């Protein structure tokens, strides 16, 4: 597996396949299923930045997970809360 280049200092959000790939291939899983929305917490070992992978629209997805959305923490005031639509 090719290791992804760290982009944590340059990005705040990734969606769908890109979010899933970046979280699994670059970040370290800290906690899975930390709340009823199924959110997952990650951390970058290079920058120390914290990330949350959540799944908006999970109720309508056949898999029950929805579309992945990876965001850097802390969330800003204009970002939707974890698990909520934006």
Total beta strands: 5
Structural class by helix and strand composition: alpha+beta
Q: Main beta sheet: strand number and arrangement?
A: 5 strands, antiparallel
User: What is the number of helices?
Assistant: 1
Report the order of strands and helices.
EHEEEE
Shape: globular
Mean pLDDT across all residues, rounded?
Answer: 86
Strand order of the largest sheet: 1-5-4-3-2
Folded structure, characterized:
- This protein has 86 residues and is of the alpha+beta class.
- It has a domain at 13-72.
- The chain is built from one helix and five strands, in the order E-H-E-E-E-E.
- It has one helix at residues 16-25; strands spanning 13-15, 28-32, 40-43, 50-54, 69-72.
- A five-stranded antiparallel beta sheet has the order 1-5-4-3-2, with helices on one face.
- It is globular.
- The model has no long low-confidence stretch (mean pLDDT 86).
What topology does this entry show?
Blueprint: E1 13-15, H1 16-25, E2 28-32, E3 40-43, E4 50-54, E5 69-72
Antiparallel strand pairs: 1-5, 2-3, 3-4, 4-5
Q: In short, what is this structure?
A:
By secondary structure, the protein is an alpha+beta fold.
Entry keywords:
12% helix; 5-stranded antiparallel beta sheet; 86 residues; alpha+beta; single chain; 1 helix
